[in-house]
Write a structure and sequence with these properties.
The protein is of the alpha/beta class. The protein has 3 domains: about 20-105, Winged helix-like DNA-binding domain superfamily/Winged helix DNA-binding domain (Arc Repressor Mutant, subunit A), CATH 1.10.10.10; about 105-175 and about 285-305, Periplasmic binding protein-like II (D-Maltodextrin-Binding Protein, domain 2), CATH 3.40.190; about 180-280, Periplasmic binding protein-like II (D-Maltodextrin-Binding Protein, domain 2), CATH 3.40.190. The chain has helices spanning about 20-30, 35-40, 45-60, 75-105, 120-130, 150, 215-220, 240-250, 260-265, 295-305; strands spanning about 65, 70-75, 105-115, 135-140, 160, 170-175, 180-185, 195-200, 205-210, 235-240, 255-260, 270-275, 285-290. It starts with 18 loop residues before the first helix and ends in a 25-residue tail after the last helix.
């Protein structure tokens, strides 16, 4: 048990200062009433007495005189209060400044996106800026050939990328809603006049795919080597960027699978975007370095988490507009 003189058992020297004891003394010096001091401190009257005795034991002298009629500071208590109040005030200000700094996110954040800036990402940015107007944001496009490189190299703080992501040094989530696939083909392609195709029909056209250094598992998911039924899908040209892929498809060099928002955002007169059934769905996730999270990044993750989808249904079940429609749809 600690002694009331503030000395540790075994002669180990004084115990460290207890901020609660100092706070109790200052409140009691102001109220000069144990009951009212306890009410302000949300403790019992006996706890106020206990804290005061511990402080007096630490100092080695009485600070407060207590009789049945009144409570008063001793001369030493008066001097102690006069010196303690400004010091305690400075300490409280330092703590409050640290708390404010923790609540107020400052700095900058660089966000990467693949294909198109998803509507939920832009909604999350709106919420993020409303909460943290002092943060500067820049948004850059990530290439298909190197989706994870910019995050690893610190070129972006986080990126919205297509799943799957099987990278031990990266953290994923929150995930975005699932989206149906679209097949980008030249308007001269036989599929261009179709309102939709089955995934098994992919054997009839070479698929444009991402070039390395994108991992093979990631490239094969975006441009599968086989249909769900196990049939081989012809391999088309490898491209580095989305624009290269769209240009290749428009020139008749192959077909390219895209998630619906990206297809809608990049609508153009020389391409048709045909819904593909039986291929599952595409899904985006927020990716950042496992050892590179900052207060700014955590605040953005929170904004993405709180930004719900603006649709009340699963977009992957939607067949979408006629693939021959050329009007771009906003995010």
């Amino acid at each position: 048990m600690p002694r009331e003189d503030g000395v540790r058992p075994g002669g180990e020297g004084p115990r460290p200062l207890e901020a609660r004891e100092l706070e109790c003394f200052l409140v009691l010096a102001e109220e000069l009433h144990f009951g009212r001091a306890g009410e302000r401190l949300y403790v019992s009257q006996s706890r106020v007495s206990q804290l005061l005795r511990a402080l007096e034991g630490r100092i080695g002298a009485r600070l407060v005189e207590r009789t049945s009629r009144r409570v008063a500071l001793t001369p030493l208590g008066e001097r102690f209060r006069a010196e303690l109040e400004p010091a305690y005030g400075r300490l409280a200000a330092v703590v409050e400044e640290a708390r404010s700094a923790a609540r107020c996110v400052r700095g900058s954040i660089r966000l990467g996106f693949l294909g198109s800036a998803h509507h939920r990402m832009t909604a999350a940015l709106g919420l993020f800026h409303a909460r943290h107007p002092g943060v500067t944001t820049s948004v850059v496009e990530v290439t298909m050939a190197d989706p994870f490189g910019p995050v690893r190299r610190g070129e972006v703080d986080a990126a919205v990328l297509l799943l799957p992501v099987d990278e031990p040094d990266l953290v994923t989530g929150p995930d975005f809603e699932r989206q149906p696939w679209r097949l980008a083909v030249s308007i001269r392609h036989p599929f261009a006049a179709r309102t939709g195709i089955d995934a098994e029909e992919l054997v009839r056209t070479p698929l444009i795919h991402s070039a390395p250094p994108a991992p093979a598992y990631w490239r094969d998911h975006q441009a599968p080597l086989r249909t769900p039924g196990g049939l081989a899908v012809p391999r088309g040209p490898a491209v580095t960027t989305l624009q290269e892929g769209l240009a290749t498809a428009a020139a008749g060099g192959g077909a390219m699978l895209l998630c619906r928002p990206t297809a809608e955002t990049h609508a153009r007169s020389d391409l048709a975007f045909v819904p593909v059934a039986g291929l599952g769905s595409s899904e985006l996730t927020l990716v950042r370095a496992r050892d590179g999270e900052t207060a700014v990044v955590r605040a953005f993750v929170q904004a993405v988490t709180e930004t719900a989808s603006d649709t009340g249904r699963d977009p992957a079940s939607d067949t979408g507009p006629d693939p021959r429609t050329r009007t771009a749809v906003g995010l």
